[in-house]
Amino acid sequence: MMRMILLIAIAGLLAGCKEDDPAALPPRPVVSEIVRTNQIEARDLTGTVAARVETDLGFQATGRIISRPVSIGDVVARGSVLAELDPDDLESARQAAAAGLSAAKVRLETARRASERTRALVARGVATVAQQESADSALSSAKAELERATAVLTKAEDALGFAVLRAPLDGVITDVLADAGAVVSAGQPVVRLAGTRDREAVVDLPESAVEALGDDAVFEVGLRGFRDIRTTARVTEIEPVADSATRTRQVHLELKEPPASMRLGVLVHVHLIGGGGALIAVPESAILSENGASYVWRVKRPEDRVERIAAEVSPLGDGRVRVHSGVDVGDEIVTRGVHSLEAGQRVGPRVQ
Q: What residue stretches are annotated with the CusB-like beta-barrel domain (predicted)?
């Protein structure tokens, strides 16, 4: 009887040891991810051709618009008339300024003669020094008034020359901001012009893909539906703020000698052909943090066991982290339940 009890006790101890052995734990399915780089060479992106230069144009004078011969979508050449102000009002202002200048000249001449006459009287002892000072002060005021009147006339003449708004470059009218009959102030936008000489492709990229772009990234841009119409492009600007809904950022690509058929607004295929960089990223939930260090669980197949790997990571955004070391392309990394695993534990099939 004692021998039987002893055998049962030993069996219980062995069973307890076996339960503590991670390798003996029953396999559990794992939610995991196969590591790939975030290179975008394989992605065929869609972008839009846009103008690198787009500006609001307005008159340099205040007046009433009598003509605006352009509409949205019109193609204009440099020097083309975009809008005109009523010249009658401007001419009236010029005439008034000219009359003011003539009056200022008369007052200046009168003040000069009065000053000279007073000086002569002072020399003869008939007038006082105070009277001379008063006459000289009036002369100085008349000179200043003449300068102001001259400036007013110059401004009025310039305004008359500014009555016609012309295109400063070849482009397309993308918006009209004032109609004929409207009274506009100097500098108020009347039309919006997008230049057609310098064009760019604008494409939306995920934040992780943007992080992978190198300074030497080169893209091939092709007209949608016409793959033989293409050119190359380089990154000129990346929008600093991501879209709150899509978590993408706009990337601006300067087109090198774009074909004429790549007009503003057309859709293009964008394909990275060089300088994409290689970026390895995993979900934040895959990171196990202990004592200031970061680890991931890597699944070894076909052994179906996990091993803890030290990893150097940094935040990437969009719920993912960038892995600088410790993880290789092709690794299967556990992304859920990382706190309930033990080294060497057997796991079941992968669950995506």
A: 202-273
